[in-house]
Known about the structure:
Shape: globular
Number of domains: 2
Largest sheet: 8 strands, mixed
CATH superfamily of the largest domain: P-loop containing nucleotide triphosphate hydrolases
Number of helices: 19
Radius of gyration: 23 Å
Structural class: alpha/beta
Strand order of the largest sheet: 8-9-7-10-6-11-12-13
Distance between the termini: 14 Å
CATH topology of the largest domain: Rossmann fold
Amino acid sequence: MMHKFAQAVELESNPHAVGESYVAQIPRISIQAFCETAELSHAVQSAAADRRMAKAHVKVQMGGIVAAIEAYTGAPTPNVILIEHNGSGTELIDGLDKLSECCDAGTKVVIVGRLNDIVLYRELVRRGISDYVMSPLSALDVVRSVSNLFNAPDAEPVGRVIAVIGAKGGVGASTVAHNVAFSIARDLALDTVIADLDLPFGTAGLDFNQDPPQGIADAVFSPDRVDSAYIDRLLSKCTDHLSLLASPATLEREYDFSGESFDPVIDAMRSSIPYIVLDLPHLWTGWAKRTLIGADEVLLVTTPDLASLRNAKNLFDFVRSARPNDRPPLYLLNQVGVPKRPEVRAVDFAKALDAQPIAAIPFDPQIFGTAANNGQMIAEVNPANKISETFLGVAKALTGRAEAKKEKTDFLSPLLAKLRGLKK
Length: 424
């Protein structure tokens, strides 16, 4: 911690003092800068063009911390917020307290200022600021500051893995996974990859109207080659923030995998991609079990029938016991309201699973059929449809964006542990 402050002081007298040190590539994240001077604005824009920032989405605007507070009141925050502040320390602290009320969990905040004050720095650390750097900054200084947030030895992996699985075949789990991933990418502006793990029969390529020559099979069968750069070459771009790691969907070979077969692929994606949605097939193998347990979030898709209820109960109990320190899995009811079909009530699901469903998606063959045949998502077919809003709500629940506004977020908490360690 003190080393970072010393480095900041060194940069004030010599902005290029650490310019020759290695700067690691920045992962696929979103960054928004709120500048007060044209100099920093230019530096950030130049940094966005640096080769190490090729995967990042960067947005620059003026207005400092006041503009940041206005921008995120009621709106999701990006992975990194960079704020320039040239006023007093008291104004900065007051502004950060207001920003914390609307800052999403996991967002990292970097402050750029001119105050060489160790007392202020300690106060910023106490509030969880990820970094404080002294101006002026060059483009490389900006790249380095962001890179250090994600490439330090003790930095948490940038990516979160969401596993989506059906309680039985035909419940629409793939359709849900694809639409939720689309909503995370489009509506929340978070870089996302949908990985189709159903290698022989996957439908992600069809649903997104993509036919890439390479995909997840190339990575699984070549584990020695897998790293973030290799995965990046296999991705098929669907939208600005959404990419697809497609399955071959062919029967030319057998797909028998060991329990650890998908680990290198998932680890490589986790190291550089903010959100990874795994479209898991309905089967029970060593690798499927391992993937489900290892995910950060689990979403179970079920239909309102007895077989789905039984399977959902089994899956819920297994995941809860296998992940005692994680949030319980979430589930939703799909294809609700099929004409003339007797259905198990939502209240019966809630009683059996001891949890309420996060959503109930009505049976609507017209809109889902149109979307499937056109290779589109529901929000593309009819953005005003309530089902699109449902998918957005599920996306917010899985990413924590819904809860983030309900409590003051200590967005510098990762550094508090470091500070406590220095005091010992």
